Amino acid sequence: MEKRKWTDHVRSLYLRYDRMMEKQGFYVVLAVCVVIIAVSAILTFCQRREAQIPVVVEDAAAAGGSQQAQTLEEAMTENRITVQPTTLPTEPPLVFTQPVSGVTIRLFSADEPQYFAASNTWQVHTGIDLQTDYGAPVAAAAPGKVTFAGEYGAMGLCVEIAHGNGYGTVYAGLAEAGFVRAGDPVQAGQTIGLAGTGLLCESNDGAHLHFEVRRDGRPVDPLLAFLGLDGM
């Protein structure tokens, strides 16, 4: 009898639970899900916080274990980056222009000798010869200062100009060199003489200008200087 009463009681409870689930089952399940989500979020937050704590404690111990806290000035000194100042050019690069209008009739050759019929000799040619009319104006190929103007042995009448940065130009075989004197400043394109046939070894080549470009006293090919390819 006792056992039957117990069984009836359990059955009654089950029926009540079944009726409740039919009416409010959705809300019960929803409440359980909300609780589960909340508990999961709390556990995740706690785990992340615990994972961060050792790092903070370790850093604090490292900073204060053997020395005092780093000051702002010390931090700036240790992390200072040295920046090299940008150097801007103080003047534009040197550009050479052709001193006379005319064609090149003899090229530069500082290593291999060339034949000169007027003197029946083989010589190196440290400049170029630009064919032009006799008496044609000869212009400075770049701005600079005249270092010589006058007769110069086998070169005839010539003008020499220093342009800075080790560069200089020579204008030889002139018919007239009295336009400038040593020490005069000149601008690119300024007339410094007149073309002639003054070079002894080139006297049978007709009127032309013997033009040289020198860098630190060493002759360089003027055609490369015109193009900016002489290593400037």
Summarize the structure.
The chain has 232 residues and is an alpha+beta fold. The chain contains 3 helices and 12 strands. The strands form 2 sheets. Strands 1, 4, 5, 6, 7, 8, 9, 10, 11 and 12 form a 10-stranded antiparallel sheet that branches.
Fold and architecture overview:
With 232 residues, the protein is of the alpha+beta class. It folds into two domains: 77 residues, no CATH class; 124 residues, Glucose Permease (Domain IIA). The chain has three helices and twelve strands, in the order ααββββββββββββα. The strands form two sheets. Strands 1, 4, 5, 6, 7, 8, 9, 10, 11 and 12 form a ten-stranded antiparallel sheet that branches. A two-stranded antiparallel sheet has the order 2-3. Strand 2 and strand 3 form a beta hairpin. The radius of gyration is 48 Å and the shape is rod-shaped. The relative contact order is 0.12.
The whole-number mean of residue pLDDT values reads 77
In the predicted model, the low-confidence regions spanning at least 5 consecutive residues are 53-66, 86-90
- The SSE order reads HHEEEEEEEEEEEEH
Q: Indicate the CATH architecture of the largest domain.
A: Distorted Sandwich
Q: Count every beta strand, where a strand is a DSSP E run of 2 or more residues.
A: 12
Task: Kindly provide the name of the CATH class of the largest domain.
Answer: Mainly Beta
Question: Helix fraction?
Answer: 25-40%
Largest sheet geometry: 10 strands, antiparallel
| Beta-strand content | 25-35%
According to CATH, the homologous superfamily of the largest domain is Glucose Permease (Domain IIA)
Distance between the termini: 120 Å
